[in-house]
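Suppose a colleague, Dr. K., hands you the sequence of a protein chain of 391 amino acids and asks what its three-dimensional shape might be. Before reaching for any lab equipment, you can write down a predicted structure in token form. Begin with the sequence itself:
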Amino acid sequence: MTGAAEPTTLTRHPLGADRVRQLPAGGLADLLLEAGGDVVNLAAGTPEWPVTPPTFVEHGVRALREGVHQYEDPAGNLRLREWIAGTLPGSPDPATELTVTTGASEALAVALLTCVDPGDEVVVLEPFYENFLSAIAVVGGVPRFVPSEGPAWAVDTAALTAAFGPRTRAIVVNSPSNPTGRLMTREELGILAELCAKWDVTVVSDEVYAAYVYDGARHCSVAEVPGLAERGIVLGSLSKSHAVSGWRLGYLRAPEPWTRLLRRMHVATTGGTAAPLQHAAAEGARALPQDWDPGASMSPLRDRAVRMLAEAGFECDAPEGGVYVLAGTRGLTRMPSPQFVRALAEETGVLLAPATPFFAAPESGARYVRAAFNRPETTLVEAHRRLAGRP
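The predicted structure, expressed as tokens, is then:
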């Protein structure tokens, strides 16, 4: 008599799915959790400038008191989508081309879940925002890095071309960049359009910092570029532009065929975004004063931050956009940036971010730090005073 077959033994990790172990570990988040005491924190991008518009707060309170407590249209409050559409180039259709998300982080995850299958390659320009790698890991994608060199951080066209191939499904771009503040040029976007058309690749464009562009420069959205507009998914957010990062209000802009798919994934992941906060933003934005211009108010803060860092011995150029300065430390220390920022915080009480999380190989960021300047002028003045007193 034949005995019962022995059960197949599966080798599994004792806890959790493999995708969790693919996520970047620690990095900037761990450093920020350690910060405490009398520290001027220029490491986190959490906005302390501009001031959250009082109109947003007033309409938020009103929405709660008036009973806006239940589900909103999963695509987002229509008045909010209409207002967002009016702020974007090319006047997207708020009914069919915009979706409100739970912050730009959900927008990024939804975009990649919608266009990338496990094993597909995703091109990433380096240095990059750390969460790009997290989102790629969650969807099972394989990152292909395109390095660039400071201080210009221009896209290396040869390296970009070499990164594309038959397994490439998407590319993630970020302009203005976190952490460099660089704007992608129209020429670079044109080259990207040719590559995406050749390999049938979707471009996921993080344009969260589009409100902050300086010195007469102009941000160019992928939605404005022929060859990218029809295959582009744009990520946006009110977190930095209106200083409501805790409200988690982001959005996806995409052509109607893509939007249908994105909304299905959005419903599957979150089901929608907080209704009273959407209402508050929709009505509060319409009540903003005529002179509301966060970009103009941020420009002098950028200048002060660059001057502060240069006078303290860091190597840096003024960023074209965004709210960060990526500064070199070669003239100051031989310590890698994670150790240096801790030593600097202990010595001066000024906390900067190490740049190692922004590079595929941490050693590539070992001689750079990032400083956020979306802070009140008084905060930057105090940081300047502390750094100036360093021997």
